[in-house]
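Need a sequence for this fold. Nothing fancy.
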């Protein structure tokens, strides 16, 4: 994980997520003819809206929780490994455990949100 963070993968993923959201807004604008409320209230418009909402929530959670936790883990891991045994190392290891727990909790949530988004976008045209 340290190597991935050092290589800037988190910045790359954030930029791809942002570009995906911007593209989705443009496509929704084209689909609804300039955000026409009548088209947005259709079943397809609502399906696309649900997909967009879950996608944006996944982007926010992924960046703010998972990305930030990964960055902190990448910084804290090598420092904790170099520390001598003692209360300071124990505190660092506890912080690492908390960050891993946070990632283990929010990772599946983000995955579920992305799957809902994918499903809603895939079937939106056929509803």
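Here you go.
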């Amino acid at each position: 994980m340290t190597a991935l963070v050092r290589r800037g993968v988190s910045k790359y993923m954030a930029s791809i997520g942002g570009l995906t959201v911007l593209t989705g807004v443009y496509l929704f604008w084209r689909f609804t003819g300039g955000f026409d409320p009548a088209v947005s209230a259709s079943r397809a418009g609502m399906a696309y809206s649900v997909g967009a909402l879950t996608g944006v929530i996944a982007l926010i959670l992924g960046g703010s929780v998972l990305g930030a936790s990964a960055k902190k883990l990448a910084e804290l891991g090598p420092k904790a490994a170099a520390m001598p045994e003692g209360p300071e190392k124990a505190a660092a290891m506890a912080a690492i455990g908390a960050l891993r727990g946070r990632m283990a909790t929010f990772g599946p949530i983000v995955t579920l949100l992305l799957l809902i988004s994918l499903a809603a976008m895939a079937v939106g045209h056929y509803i």
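For context: Residues 93 and 101 are 12 Å apart (CA to CA).
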